[in-house]
């Protein structure tokens, strides 16, 4: 099988570094091992930074997004090397579950802020219990607070930061998350649930 390290959708290039994630979300396409937009994103081998950079096609892209099947900050060293090589050529966005500082055992938001123009943090729920019910983080209930701090810290450091939720969590919960994002001084967006 082919390992898809980069893939393009429209004018955006996506980077897929890992299958690994600290969460096991109920709605994750990764858990179902489904194709995404026609791409098989399951990796038999995780890439080096050089392999990712070699796989990037020629062309103009409006932005490069680190997301992939798994959580990109699980491979933070590779992520940083790729982002450093691309910085200045493209607008860079990180899509993350916001647990990168827990995953790496230190606050990584300073390094993220130096490299990325935009960060999207999946909020998914309005409190730690609901978050744990949906996301089943290996960090348990500590994951929710760490996720909030991650988003707040990126925003404070000047990165355009959004908290996001998937619309399948229900209107009431979406509104509770919107309020929490507002109180955290972080932008907010609702994403469509991908079936
Ligand atoms: S955080 Fe993202 S990659 Fe990880 S399990 Fe949830 S939806 Fe999947």
Domains counted in the coordinates: how many? 1
Query: Can you identify the CATH class?
Result: Alpha Beta
Helix content: 25-40%
Cα-atom radius of gyration: 16 Å
CATH architectural grouping: Alpha-Beta Barrel
Characterize the structure shown.
There is one protein chain. By secondary structure, the protein is α/β, with parallel strands linked by helices. 36% of the residues lie in helices and 18% in strands. The chain is built from 8 helices and 7 strands; from the N terminus they run ββααβαβααβααβαβ. The protein has helices at residues 29-32, 49-55, 76-86, 100-104, 109-115, 128-135, 142-156, 171-183, and strands at residues 6-9, 12-15, 63-66, 91-96, 118-122, 160-166, 187-191. Helix 2 (49-55) crosses helix 3 (76-86) and helix 6 (128-135) crosses helix 7 (142-156). The mean pLDDT is 94. The structure holds iron/sulfur cluster. Iron/sulfur cluster is lined by residues 21, 23-25, 28, 30, 70-71, 97, 122, 135.
Task: Write a compact overview of the structure shown.
This protein has helices at residues 29-32, 49-55, 76-86, 100-104, 109-115, 128-135, 142-156, 171-183, and strands at residues 6-9, 12-15, 63-66, 91-96, 118-122, 160-166, 187-191. With 195 residues, it is α/β, with parallel strands linked by helices.
For the structure shown, list the relevant keywords.
195 residues; alpha/beta; TIM Barrel; seven-stranded mixed beta sheet; 8 helices; 7 strands; globular; binds iron/sulfur cluster
């Amino acid at each position: 099988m082919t390992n898809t390290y980069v893939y393009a959708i429209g004018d955006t290039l996506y980077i897929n570094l890992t299958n690994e994630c600290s969460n096991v979300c109920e709605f994750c396409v990764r858990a179902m091992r489904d194709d995404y937009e026609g791409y098989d994103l399951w990796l038999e081998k995780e890439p080096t930074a050089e392999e990712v950079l070699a796989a990037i096609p020629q062309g103009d892209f409006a932005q490069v997004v680190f997301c992939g099947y798994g959580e990109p900050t699980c491979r933070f060293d590779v992520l940083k090397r790729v982002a450093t090589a691309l910085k200045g050529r493209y607008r860079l966005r990180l899509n993350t579950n916001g647990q990168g500082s827990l995953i790496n055992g230190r606050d990584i938001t300073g390094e993220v802020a130096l490299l990325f123009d935009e960060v999207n943090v999946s909020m998914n729920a309005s409190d730690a219990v609901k978050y744990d019910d949906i996301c089943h983080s290996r960090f348990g209930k500590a994951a929710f607070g760490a996720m909030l701090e991650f988003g707040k810290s990126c925003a404070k450091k000047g990165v355009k930061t959004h908290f996001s939720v998937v619309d399948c969590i229900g209107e009431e919960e979406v509104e509770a998350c919107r309020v929490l994002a507002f109180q955290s001084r972080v932008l907010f967006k609702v994403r469509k649930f991908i079936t």
